[in-house]
Write a structure and sequence with these properties.
InterPro entries: BEACH_dom, BEACH_dom_sf, BEACH_Domain, PH-BEACH_dom, WD40/YVTN_repeat-like_dom_sf, WD40_repeat_dom_sf, WD40_rpt. The protein is α+β, with helices and mostly antiparallel strands. The chain contains 17 helices and 43 strands. Helix 6 runs antiparallel to helix 7 and helix 9 runs antiparallel to helix 10.
Length: 1010
């Protein structure tokens, strides 16, 4: 038995797939080995030659021209089995009424791709097929399952799918690895390979430190991808689930070759990379990738494991990451990327792929013939006003129809799906068309044969809302799909005749266009001259759903908005229906932009930071976006695109869409200590810090007395204060969700301020006097002590929620984000990424331990936390879990490695980190805990005492003992009846001490300890 199908799977019907292939013999040729492939909807017989076929098939009135014969189950009256001895089994097909002759698609571009020959017989016949080399014990379960499938007794076609075992470790080393020094990075992983309309199952993937191997079910090499060739990757969907990964490569043979063997000269081949390409050319942004393969995984976590390995082992760019979208957006605003390439890459960022016809890239109609350019601010269905009025009247009528009260829509069809994509590409993808159409081409009058007529149909026909595909604008001429060749019938396909009698050949071009190539060049020129921003809003941005979609008449039938979340709440029958609807009728791209898209060339005119909105689930750390979490099935309430984390602030005015910064992709590097700071840069400030430590060391000893209000301000901030910093010279910094960072005097008078269009989530102070601020726009901003901007860059693929400095280096710090990732940075370079968090990170802490390693602790949204040890070489080990997500180290240096945690449950915990021999990661030990009877929001400590800011607006003062925590005092009115969101203790030159408290309503107050 062979598990590899010997014919192209696209020869089957749409959504049919091959299961198992057996060696068989036929009555007319008992000694000749043929192949029988059992499929989900048919049996396919592959004879040795067409002459063999004629000896057992009844006459069909014409010569048999194919040795691939398909018997649909519907054409067979009954299936029976018989055995002869212990080694031969016979399958009997009774009363066959018809069969199909399949024409293989690999005859080359010079040969036509013929539709399947459907042979309907005047009289039924019976065929016996004998299985070779198959025992009864092997064949009986097969036949029983086959009969169940044939009789429709089961709907799950997986009954015949035998789970394949991956290759053994010894087999991999002997047969797969190309070098004896090659090292395995991940275990053998089952994968599927997604082709247009089909998925090849039961393949395997092995990742090493040099290559990515994809193996067939029989463990032979299907494709080898050197890691050096991987330039880009992108997260993808498979059947509405976040299970796919597309890998873009340079100079790798097509995966259609069953066994790819790299040339011995490959290792010496110079492949252009981002650094060797001229900046701001289209090649710079695409990395000159020439091919891609789309893999599907059994689980999201197995996909993410490979993604993490590729990000560590290569310098690949993640198309679907927030930082990548930000790069592209910034390049577009600065006029550093063509419209064509920008659309191609944001299609990829939104989950569209040329390997998936149900999510094929979308491009806009620009104009037809000499008509004026299309209004790109309107969806294709709203261009014709009279047709739009008809759609609106129909929608009004739905309100009175039972079942449509909450799901009215304007358009019952979509602008992109597998059928629409193949409508345009019938001449370049005929095999896919035949598969989708059930073995034949569509009727000639329904085919793409005249460009202007297709445009008029999209304007006037209520069932036609097609947008275009990228081939209309691709001026390259490297394949049948590009440079206009997709408009030519170069394969002499039998596309039929129109009702007028005219034969369908090449597409009829607009008047005055001399050639297909000239036509594509004309389209490209018009695309580059068009202002595409309004159209991007409709397809990928703020106009895709919600109130903006309503305002722009951009509301489709509810099925195009299905997401993975919808599948989780559906029964099995509903799931299959939803998947079928999205595959056949189309699905919306992911939302990339939540504010109005800026115009090309406006980059210098837009202030601040504006980013693509990314909604991150617990697994897909870089999925950009399900920006519509919990998409509802009724089109009238298709949701907004705010991430499902913290509530975003209600701003009185709508912010302008400023341009994002453009971070350059950087390879992973090892963690190295930075050199000492230059003279006169941070030494003075560092001395001040050391001097101030002694003064403030025991500031909490004064808490046996009372608090006296020194200064208070309710007009500095309009939203929650997220952090307060105090320098040794008593300069004060405060940050807020209102987007501001302010420098204040010790009397809380404003010195200077800077603003961001998105909330500022946290800040930290460095020993050289500079500060770093994290933001909901995914960025990290570095400022001098005078709040002069030093730099700003993207730190995470979702909101950067927390930042904390490390005492080890000059500008070293840890960040956490809603993307569930914790990162260790030195200056603007990310040294280590920690992927173990399962929830959004809301707080981070870090300090040095033995050997220069860093202890990093992160608090997660769920109220739990975890810690890691990170070495100077970039190594990382998980220490363990903790309770609480508000975290504060007792000391940043020295032998005391205790820390405090707390959470919404009101429990304050004291932990200690123990470095254990034989376990380089060490462990966490809980020493003590106590209940402060209100949610713990923020903690500060001097080592002997702790002060806790609580959600009830009060403060708790605690003594820290060796084995217990004692609450000694409660101040209930500090927060002015709102929660304490930030606090910082300070020690004065006169030996006095105090605290500064920030609250949820933006109130800031300074208190003296007396």
């Amino acid at each position: 038995m062979s598990s590899a199908c010997p014919f192209h799977p696209l020869l089957l019907s749409y959504q049919e797939r091959p299961l198992l292939t057996y060696t068989v013999s036929l009555p007319s040729c008992p000694n000749s080995d043929s192949k029988l492939t059992i499929c989900t909807k048919s049996l396919v017989l592959i004879t040795q030659s067409t002459s063999n076929a004629t000896s057992f098939l009844p006459s069909s009135g014409g010569a048999v021209t194919s040795n691939l014969i398909k018997f649909p189950y519907a054409s067979i009256s009954s299936l029976t089995t018989s055995s002869n001895g212990n080694s031969v089994d016979t399958l009997k097909l009774t009363n066959i009424t018809s069969y199909l002759l399949l024409h293989p698609p690999n005859a080359g571009l010079s040969q036509p791709v013929l539709p399947h020959g459907i042979i309907k017989l005047p009289e039924p016949f019976t065929l016996s097929i004998t299985f070779q080399h198959t025992s009864i014990s092997e064949s009986t379960p097969l036949f029983n399952s086959l009969l169940q499938l044939y009789n429709g007794e089961v709907k799950d076609d997986n009954i015949l799918t035998q789970e394949k075992e991956g290759p053994t470790e010894d087999e991999v080393k002997r047969k797969i690895y190309k070098s004896v020094v090659e090292r395995k990075v991940s275990d053998v992983t089952p994968v599927g390979i997604t082709l247009p309309l089909q998925t090849l199952t039961n393949h395997f993937l092995i990742c090493t430190d040099q290559n990515l191997y994809i193996l067939t079910p029989s463990h032979t090499i299907y494709l080898t991808i050197p890691l050096s060739k991987i330039k880009r990757v992108a997260l993808r969907y498979h059947k509405l689930q976040d299970l796919g990964l597309e890998i873009f490569t340079s100079a790798v043979s097509s995966p259609s070759n069953l066994a790819y063997k790299p040339s011995p000269h490959d290792k010496n081949e110079l492949t252009p990379t981002a650094t060797s390409l001229k900046p701001f050319t289209d090649d710079y942004w695409t990395y000159k990738c020439t091919s891609s393969i789309l893999l599907t995984f059994p689980t999201t976590s197995s996909r993410n494991t490979l993604l993490s390995s590729l990000k560590t082992l290569t310098s690949c760019v993640v198309d679907t990451s927030k930082s990548r979208v930000s790069q592209l957006y910034s390049a577009y605003l600065s006029n550093k990327i063509s419209n064509y390439t920008y659309l191609w890459l944001i299609n990829s960022a939104a989950g569209r792929s040329s390997n998936d016809l149900s999510r094929y890239p979308i491009y806009p109609w620009i104009r037809s013939s000499d008509n004026p350019p299309r209004d790109l601010s309107k969806p294709i269905g709203a261009i014709n006003k009279s047709r739009l009025e008809g759609f609106k009247e129909r929608r009004e009528g739905m309100k009175d129809i039972e079942g449509f009260e909450h799901s009215q829509f304007l358009y019952g069809t979509f602008y992109s799906n597998a059928g629409y994509s193949l409508f345009w590409l019938v001449r370049s993808k005929p095999v896919e068309v035949i598969c989708l159409q059930g073995g034949c081409y569509d009727h000639a009058d329904r085919m793409f044969f005249d460009y202007d007529k297709s445009w008029r149909s999209c304007l006037d026909n209520n069932a036609d809302l097609k947008e275009l595909v990228p081939e209309f604008f691709n001026t390259e001429d490297e394949s049948v799909s590009r440079g206009g060749r997709f408009l030519q019938n170069v394969r002499d396909l039998p596309l039929g005749r129109l009702q007028s009698g005219e034969k369908v050949e090449d597409v009829v071009l607009p008047e005055g266009v001399k050639s297909c190539r000239a036509f594509v060049k004309k389209n490209r020129k018009e695309l580059e001259e068009a202002e595409i921003a309004p159209w991007v809003d409709l397809i990928f941005g703020c106009g895709q759903r919600g109130e903006e979609a309503e305002r722009r008449d951009n509301v489709f039938v509810s099925s195009v908005y299905y997401t993975e979340d919808d599948l989780k709440h559906a029964d099995e029958t509903t799931k299959q229906r939803m998947i079928m609807e999205t595959e056949e009728f189309g699905v919306c791209p992911d939302v990339l932009f939540v504010m109005e898209h800026g115009k090309k060339g406006e980059g210098a005119k837009i202030d601040g930071m504006w980013m693509a909105a990314v909604a991150t689930d617990s697994c897909g750390r870089e999925r950009s976006v399900n920006g519509t979490p919990g998409r509802k099935s009724d089109a009238s309430s298709i949701g907004g695109s705010t991430p499902k984390r913290e509530s975003m602030p209600d701003n009185p005015t709508t912010p302008k869409p400023p341009a994002p910064v453009t971070p350059q992709p950087q390879p992973q590097t090892h963690l190295q200590p930075q050199p000492n700071p230059p003279p006169n840069s941070s030494t003075k400030f560092g001395d001040e810090v050391a001097a101030a430590k002694g003064k403030a060391k025991a500031w909490l000893s004064s808490f046996g007395l009372n608090l006296t209000l020194l200064h208070s301000s309710s007009n500095l901030h309009t939203d929650s204060i997220t952090s307060v910093l105090v320098t040794p010279s008593f300069s004060i910094f405060s940050t807020s969700r209102d987007g501001s960072t302010k420098s204040l005097t010790k009397d809380l008078n404003l010195v200077t301020e800077v603003h961001s269009s998105m909330p500022v989530s946290d800040a930290t102070l460095f020993s050289n006097g500079s500060i770093a601020c994290s933001g909901y726009d995914d960025s990290l901003s570095l400022y001098s002590e005078e709040l002069v901007s030093v730099s700003k860059f993207i730190a995470h693929d979702d909101a950067t929620s927390s930042v904390e400095s490390c005492s080890t280096f000059d500008i070293a710090y840890v960040t956490g984000g809603w993307d569930c990732i914790v990162k260790l940075w030195i200056k603007e370079e990310c040294k280590v990424e920690l992927y173990d968090c399962e929830e959004a990170v809301v707080n981070v802490e870090a300090r040095e331990v033995s050997g220069g390693a860093i202890l990093v602790i992160a608090g997660e949204e769920s109220g739990k936390g975890r810690g890691w040890i990170v070495t100077r070489e970039g190594g990382q080990k998980v220490v363990g879990r903790i309770n609480g997500n508000a975290i504060k180290m007792i000391h940043k240096e020295g032998g005391d490695k205790r820390f405090l945690t707390g959470g919404s449950d009101g429990v304050l915990n004291l932990y200690e980190y123990l470095e254990e021999r034989g376990n380089s990661a060490g462990s966490f030990v809980k020493i003590a805990s106590t209940n402060v009877h209100s949610g713990v929001r923020v903690i500060d400590t001097d080592g002997k005492h702790a002060i806790v800011g609580c959600s009830d607006g009060g403060l708790r003062v605690c003594e820290l003992h060796e084995d217990k925590i004692v609450v000694t005092k409660t101040f209930s009115s500090v927060g002015q009846n709102t929660g304490v969101s930030s606090l910082k203790a300070w020690g004065g030159e006169d030996g006095g001490a105090g605290i500064i408290v920030g609250t949820d309503d933006g109130h800031l107050s300074a208190w003296r300890l007396i």
